[in-house]
Amino acid sequence: MTGNLENSSTTVENPTGAVMVIGGGISGMQSSLDLANAGIKVYLVESSPAIGGKMAQLDKTFPTNDCSMCIVSPKLVEVGRHNNIELFTHSEVQDLSGDAGSFQANIYSHPRYVDVNLCTGCGLCELVCPVTEVSYFPELPAEGEKKKKLRAKEKRIVKGDGSVQPTSLHKWTFTVDEETCSKCGSCYRACLQGAIDWQKKSIAVIDQDKCTGCGACFIACPEKYQAITVTDAPDFGKSVGAAVHARSELLVKEFARDQDGGKNCIRCGLCVITCQKVMQIGALKMVEEGIEAGVDICQVCGACVSNCPVDFLNIDDVTNREPRPLLNAFNEGLNKRKPVNIFYPQAVPRVPVIDETSCVQLNSGACGTCASICGVGAIDYAPKEVETEIDIGSVIFSPGIEVFDARMRGEFGYGLYKNVVTSLEFERLLSASGPTSGTVSRPGDNKHPKKIAWIQCVGSRDHSCDRDYCSSVCCMYATKEAFIAREHDSSIEPTIFYIDMRSFGKNFDGYVTRAKENNVRYVRAMVSRIFEDPVTGDLELRYVDGSGNRQTEIFEMVVLSVGIQVPQQVKQLAGKLDIELDRYGFAVTDGYTPLATSRPGIFVSGAVNGPKDIPETVVEASAAAEAASAALAEARNSLITLETLPPERIPAPDDELRIGVFICHCGTNIASVVDVAAVTEYAKTLPGVVYAEHPLYTCSQDSQERMRDIIKEHRLNRVVTSACSPTTHEPLFQSTLQQAGLNKYFFDMANIRDQCSWVHPNEPELATEKSKRLTRMAVANATAGEALDELEFDVDSRLLIVGGGVAGMTAAVEAAKQGFGVYLVEKEAQLGGQLLNLQRNGDGKEFGSFLESVKETIEQDEKIRVFTSSEVVDQSGFVGSFESEIAMPTGATRTVKHGAILIATGAEEYRPEIYGLGEYDTVMSQTDFGAALESSEDKDWENLQVVMLQCAGSRDEDHLAYCSRVCCNHAVKNGLRLKELYPGVRVDILYRDMRCYGLGEEDYREARRAGVNFIRFDPEENPPEIKTEESGIEINITDPSVRLPVRLKPDLLVLSTGMVPRDTEELASMLRVPRNDGGFFIEAHAKLRPVDLPSEGLFMAGTAHGPKNSSETIAQAQAAVARVTTLLSQERLKMSGIVSVVDPTNCAVCLTCVRACPYGVPFINDQHTAEINPALCQGCGICVAECPAKTISIGRFEDRNIRAKIESYTAS
Amino acid sequence: MLPCTGRIDEALLLKAFENGADGVMVVGCLEGDCHYISGNIRARARVKRVYAILEQIKIGPNRIRMYNLSAGEGSKFAAYANEFVDQIVELGPSPINLARGGGVQAAKEEETT
Question: Which has the higher per-residue pLDDT, A1211 or A431?
Fold first, then answer.
């Protein structure tokens, strides 16, 4: 099979220019953005109440330790505010009909009970909701019947140690309504203060001097008369529940001041009022001795406990039933939540959902507090189920994964031992916005653990629970969690128990090395059991160490590195969509079309396409967007709406300054060190500042909407944020300014996170002072700001691809499908790159026929122009409008124009001169061996003895310092193929860590079963002694599995030598793109922009980025084309307004700028003055500083801007 | 923050001293690795000129220094900052601040590209 490259290019007549993306995690978000930015309408369907997925739950990310929320938050906002992405959260795909190019889908949206359009996300409903448990709701009366009053059979008196101290603080006033009073005397009998005067057949009178406001009379007055009226009760007009909450809040403040208030009942009566008047249960009653609880009729909603202002009541005191706490799923059940709940603080949309299982109003009709308090009337308890029919051309299936249920590994006691947690739970414990606000404490007793163990491969590489695959991410996340835990508390001693350290990704080994240097201990051992000490809660781990000795070790906390798996409901959904899954539930795809599912028109991305980390997921997400839109190219821009910005307000020169300042908490990132309230107050004192506030997350969608409103409301003409890095967040804030009709350059940003809270965590006062100073400087700079125009220019829709290997070829084919012209430049005489030296891909399919078919496609495509034996020798221009010179084999050069550049220069096999490689025929590389295996010549290999040596020149400071990622799988494949062809051979693979990540683990397992022998070595402690001579090869090594020395005398020694990038030094310097120590190109962002180069308009794909296999390369090439498409599909682009401008009045034509500019942009025009083409200007400002006449200016970095900053630095 | 150290000029550096800075640190890309090709080389020359001026006007040349760093060298940046601050603390307040009667204020301007 040549893959369904043709398959996906099958042209459909009049395709629909829209795509449905299923799953709103990082994968679905990236796909949606790439599609929507390329003119395709997107419907994003997410089953949970908000987008963000697993990445939103993570604390930090490896290997850069970037804060996960900080980097994902701008994506959340961008998706949330994108004109061409329609969000369906809390929704499911019901069914899908039609064919590729023209599908119809039905989306069912669960009732939210909160109107997404009305809700402002203020969170007040969640604050006032008194319910904390899943109630045992009383039976509803049958139709037409009256509700029966519940009568308790079992009663208990709840009282504290001390005496009851009635309080009359913030008391409500109770009076008897003479009109409705039935003169029954119930109130008189209920009052414990003797404050009611009543005689038979007379109206009761309350003595306000004696009344403490407990409300006993209010409760006792029969429902049919309701003769007690309540006044002086804030929020009583909204609902009793709201009033109870309001008084409770007031009392909490009083008693927090008076610490002695503590554990004694203050007889405020709020619990009884809640139970009777809000929940309509009436299980509580105030009596002389304390509170009488009808424990058998209590519905266990928890409202009385949460409304108690002095923490006197406990849920167990008032019921004889087992409370069922309502746990917060986002925090992995580590804390409780309310039935009305915003999924997480930065959620998009930031709109709560009311939980149908626990909300009292939805189940019994009582309460209703949240609706009564909602200022915008967004809450409606009538269920609104919505079904939406949509027309789409393609579908992207990226529903994500869940973690393994650790209960299945009973020996670790998860679920039984409280201090055994999963890695995802630990992630929430580390998170500043998690249940412990980032304090590492163990769930059992909130103690700060010192010794923490991580156990790897829980639900991975485990045949016993049908998880034969490797989850690919656990080694790295465990390392990260251990690393970060020590960052939170340096006294923590982390130990990671592992089988193989699979740090196979880009810069991963270096990260593990840093963790080791940072006192993270790694023990290669499988833990067999955990026992809990019931008294201390500590945990005893049993394992066998490297020398074969049984060990027991005590830890205070254990983290299970749980694997990832496909959730049951995802498997069901795949069934509905009719796409094929493997036995674990991962999508079945072909190595040559890694994103195409078994059903044409449906593409897959993310961990549901096999376990993977964030950057690989982002690559696949872009790739899936490309694959999904290739067939829809002709329908591009047919269903989208273009963003219209309001006209810009041009401030008059004499307008008064109106500066707004926003000081960000960044959760606790900034606020835990810097006193943000003090900085805000300080900002208000600065000249020109008319408004200042300190949002929890300034970048969140609701804060951004709020900022927009504030700009309008306060007629701001300058905005300053003191938050995080402008590199990541400035564009977001600037676009908010634009949406509010303000020029985006009337903005400045102070980085008080990196430069204050992060670098001065131990000096909060000084950090606060520095924040004030930076804010002051930003305000001064914004004051000096001016409106700048952004130049618009045409985009050339052609793409230049450098490198004609599998990455370049795939990219060329895909870019042509997207409708772009392609120049494909290959240094060698023929296309194919490294694949020409390789035999088969991961699926066992031959590369030869695949290459032929792709070559044919390229040759036949008129849009693709191939230059073989050619090189790019010069390059100029800028994003959207580049010009390159190609040197051709004839010696001639040709200049081509194009809008973007894709680097796909690839890599080749490393050929070190070690162990006689290149000297003896008996020593060969893994690639040589693969070729020999498949060659047709006669070989007498029946009884061959082969030794394969892994990391021969990889992970070695003298050779390649990095892991080449593909060698372990390559060796296993070749070993298996050898065994298949010649069953009698003996194969020994000497390895350090078998890094058969993902589903490669299955082959590793298969190879062991087929009799391939694996011997582990350690270059320090147990290096193999290898002698290669003309006479033969001899290897001595200690096999740790039997702990005995082994002597091997193989006929062949096969070296897994790793991968080196091709020489790109000249290219890199010509294009001004950075490379790392290994010579691989450095991406714009390791996590979220894995195929973008730091310079605009430049992208990369394939092994030029880092070692990877062919299907990963193909995916990356498609991803790069998706990114290219977001650019080349635009007719016009906007340039930055920050460019140098010459004022000709003072120009002396001295040529200083002409000489100074590193890009050769300034020239002398026919008016005989210097001129700078703004489209070519890079905005460095060198000419501005050099110009002797000071007649060149650069927006935003004018002398007056810099002076304003310098002057405000010292002024206080 | 500047687009490039190549944007800074002598007048602005001296302005910082005039405004009470006891020391000025200019931090640019590694030489040969400038994001704008050669901006940091020009900055180095300007810093050198300011160095000479500071010597001439008896403010002390060691109050200005240019450092070169890559964006990935956070810990090195911290080490340089500490080193420079120590140096300035040792030199004490600048004569300008002394003349104005100001106390020791180890002020630094951080200009990164």
Answer: A431
Which among B9, B33, B78 has CB closest to A1185? B9
Residue B111's pLDDT band (boundaries 50, 70, 90)?
A: very low
pLDDT in tens, A273-327: 999 999 999 999 999 889 999 999 999 999 999 999 988 999 999 999 999 999 9
**pLDDT at A108 > cutoff 70:** yes
Distance from the B27 Cα atom to the nearest Cα atom in chain A, whole angstroms? 15
Q: Is B15 in contact with A1206 (Cβ distance < 8 A)?
A: yes
Q: Name the nearest CA neighbour of A704 among A130, A254, A121.
A: A121
> Does the CA dihedral A832-A833-A836-A842 come out positive or negative?
negative
- From the CB of residue A187, how many other CB atoms can be counted at a distance below 10 Å? 24
What is the rounded distance in angstroms from the CA atom of residue A1107 to the CA atom of residue A1059? 6
Q: Which residues of A431-445 are buried (b: 16+ CB within 10 A; e: fewer)?
A: bbbbbbebebebbbe
pLDDT per position as a tens digit, A234-247? 999 999 999 999 99
Cβ neighbours of residue A472 closer than 8 Å, sequence gap 6 or more: A502, A611, A612, A613, A997, A998
Residue A1085: pLDDT band (50, 70, 90) is: confident
Q: How far apart are CA A469 and CA A608, in angstroms?
A: 13
Tell me whether residues B19 and A1159 touch, CB distance under 8 A: no
CB A380, CB A354: distance < 8 Å:
no
Query: For chain B, which residues lie within 8 Å of any Cβ of chain A, measuring from their own Cβ?
Result: 1-4, 6-9, 11-12, 15-16, 19-21, 33, 35-39, 42, 46, 78, 107, 109
Which of A763, A1073, A1197, A1206 is the best mutation test for B, with the most CBs of B within 10 A? Answer: A1206
Q: Which residue of B has its CA nearest to A1187?
A: B9
Residues whose CB falls within 8 Å of the CB of residue A589, separated by 6 or more in sequence, listed in order: A595, A596, A597, A604, A609
Asked if the Cβ–Cβ distance from A1182 to B46 is below 8 Å, we say no
Chain A, 1144 to 1173: residues with Cβ < 8 Å from chain B are: 1156, 1158-1159
* CATH code for the structural domain at A800-824+832-906+1062-1134: 3.50.50.60
Q: List CB contacts (< 8 A) between A1199 and chain B.
A: 11-12
Fold of A1140-1194: Alpha-Beta Plaits (3.30.70)
Number of domains in chain B: 1
Fold designation for A16-110+389-400+567-635: FAD/NAD(P)-binding domain (3.50.50)
Task: Please determine whether the domains at A16-110+389-400+567-635 and A910-1058 fall in the same fold group of CATH.
Answer: yes
Q: How far is A1081 from chain B (nearest CA, A)?
A: 15
Min Cα separation A772/chain B (Å) = 15
What secondary structure letter does DSSP report for A890? T
Chain B residue nearest residue A759, CA to CA: B78
ipTM exceeding the 0.90 mark: yes
- The CATH code for residues A910-1058 is 3.50.50.60
Contact A1182, A1188 (CB under 8 A): no
Contact criterion met (CB < 8 Å) for A1156 and B42: yes
Name the CATH superfamily, with its identifier, for domain A409-561. FAD/NAD(P)-binding domain (3.50.50.60)
Enter the pTM of the model. Answer: 0.85
Euclidean distance between the first and the last CA atom of chain A, given in angstroms as a whole number: 73
For residues A506-533, give the mean pLDDT: 95
Give the domain extent around B58.
5-111
Q: Write down the domain spans for chain A.
A: 16-110+389-400+567-635, 125-172+232-318, 409-561, 659-783, 800-824+832-906+1062-1134, 910-1058, 1140-1194
Is the separation of the CB atoms in A784 and A1200 below 8 Å?
A: yes
Helix (H) or strand (E) holding A66: strand A66-67
Name chain A contacts of B9, Cβ cutoff 8 Å. Answer: 1185-1186
